[in-house]
Amino acid sequence: LYGSEGTLKYRFDTDTLYFGSSSASEITEVVVPEDDEGGWRVEEEFINAIRGIEPIEFTTFEAGVKYMEFTDAVLTSAETGELVSC
């Protein structure tokens, strides 16, 4: 993710986040405190909803549109190396 003040890079293979400010010559690893770590539960939530363990949660249309605008901006930024507003 490229922005006017820096760059964020996430490596899925190592689950590692990196940041470099626009004034820095390189990016460095960001240590995320354990309390702030999130998890990917999409599949687990889906299975649990089918089993009746968790309630089904629906995304609003507006939230879905905002998410897709953000996702499109991330892709465009990655492809061009430019700042993209959404």
Descriptive notes:
The protein is flat and about 50 Å long. It contains 2 helices and 3 strands, in the order E-E-E-H-H. Strand 2 and strand 3 (28-30) form a beta hairpin. It has helices at residues 42-51, 61-80, and strands spanning 6-11, 16-21, 28-30. It starts with 5 loop residues before the first strand and ends in a 6-residue tail after the last helix.
Topology readout:
Elements: E1 6-11, E2 16-21, E3 28-30, H1 42-51, H2 61-80
Radius of gyration: 17 Å
Q: Segments where pLDDT lies below 50 for 5+ residues?
A: none
Indicate the overall shape.
Answer: flat
Q: Mean pLDDT score, rounded?
A: 91
Instruction: Describe the strand arrangement of the main beta sheet, using strand numbers.
Output: 1-2-3
In DSSP terms (H or I, runs of 4 or more residues), the helix count works out at 2
Q: Please give the share of residues in helix.
A: 25-40%
Estimated share of beta-strand residues? 15-25%
| Overall strand count | 3
Instruction: Give the total of domains.
Output: 1
The end-to-end distance, rounded to whole angstroms, is: 13 Å
The string of secondary-structure elements, in order, is: EEEHH
Computed structural class? alpha+beta
Largest sheet: 3 strands, antiparallel
How is the quaternary structure best described? single chain
